[in-house]
Prior knowledge:
Layout: H1 2-13, H2 25-57, H3 64-89, H4 108-116, H5 119-145, H6 153-172, H7 177-209, H8 211-231, H9 236-263, H10 266-271, H11 273-282, E1 288-293, H12 300-321, E2 326-333, E3 336-343, H13 357-365, E4 370-374, E5 381-388
Parallel strand pairs: 1-2
Antiparallel strand pairs: 2-3, 3-5, 4-5
Amino acid sequence: MADTSAVENAVENEGQPPARFAYERHTWKEIAYLLSGLPCALLGFVYAVSMVATGAALSVTAIGLPLLAGGLAGSRLLGRWERARARGLLGVRVDEPSRLPRRPGEGLIGRLWTGLKDPVGWRSVLYAFIRLPWGLLGFVITLTGLFVLWPVLPYVVRGMTNVDRALVRGLLSPSDELERRIAELESDRGVVVDTAAADLRRIERDLHDGAQSRLVALAMGLGLAKEKLLEGQADETVAAMVDEAHGEVKLALQELRDLARGIHPAVLTDRGLDAALSAVASRCTVPVQVTVDLKARPAEAIEGIAYFTVSELLQNVSKHAHARQASVDVWRRDDRLMIQVQDDGRGGASPQGGTGMAGLAERLGAVDGLFVVDSPPGGPTVATAELPWRDRVPAPR
C-alpha cells in the first residue's frame, strides 16, 4: 500500500514546478547586504577605533598627527568600499567625493593640516561607529527571520535596508555643497583647458598657412631679384641691401617656425607623444633615451602639457645639469599619466632654483597634476610628473 501511495503522489505532482524560495532577486540582494554588513561593520569599527585612539594617544609626539591624517585617508578607502557594496546590492547611486585639494608649493605642514580637516574621512569614521550596532541588529534579525519570519521577512528587510540607504546617502556621499562645487569647477576647468588647447592649435595652423606662406614667397622673390641684380652687375650697394633683406626674411621664417613649434608642434598633433618627445630629445645636448608606453592617446590638453613638461625638463638638462645622458619615460597608471625624466648630472635642482620648475609645478597643479623633484647634490636628478588621464575626444568631421 505504501508503494502504491508513493506512485500515486508522484503521478499527482508530475508537471508541477519544483518547490523554490518565493523571494525576488532584489530581496535576496538586500538579505545579502544585511548578512555581510556585520563583518564589514566590525572591520570598519575596529579600524576607526584603533586609528582615532592611536592618533589621539600619540598626538603629543611628532608621529601622532601624521598617523591620524593617514588613518583618515584610509577611512576614505573604507567609505569607497561601502559605497560600492551599497551600489551593487542596494542600488544606491552616490557620487564619489572629490579628492583632497593639493596646492602648488604646499609644504608638508599644509598637506598634513588638509588631511586632518578632511570632512570625507571624518564622515567615514562616523559611519563606521554608527554602522556596528546597526549592522549587528540587522544581522541578527535577518538570520533569525530566515527561519522564523519567512512570510514577512521581505518587508522587514526592505525597512532595514532603507535605513542603510539613508546612512550611505547622508554620510558617504558628497553631500557638502562645497564638494559639489569643487566637482563642478574641476569639470569646467577641463573644458577651459581643452578650449585653450584648441585655440593654440588654430593659431599654429594660421601661422603656418598665412604669414609663413607669404614670407616664403617673399624670400623666393628676393632671391630671384638678388640673382638678377648680380647678373646685371648693378650697384653693389643695392645688391647688399637686397642680400640683407633676404637674410632678414630667412631669420623671420625661422622665428615663425620656432614660434609655431612652441605653441603646439605639428608632430605632436599628427603622431603623438612618442614622436614629439623623440624630436625634443634629439635637440638636447646629451643623449636621451625616450620610452613611451601608452596604448591610447590622452586628451589634447593633457598631451600638450606632457609635451611641454618634458621639453622644459630637457632644456634644464642641457643648460644646467652637466649630464652625460638622460632618459624620458611616459606611461599610464590607472587614471594618471606618469612622466619621469632622469639625468646623471650634478644634481641640486629644485622648484625654487629658478630653472623654470616652479612654473612647471603651477602648470601641472592647474589640472590637478603633481610635480616632484629628487635631486641630491652630486645627482642623479629624477623629476616625476603626474597628470590626470582623460580620454581623447575624436575630432568632428
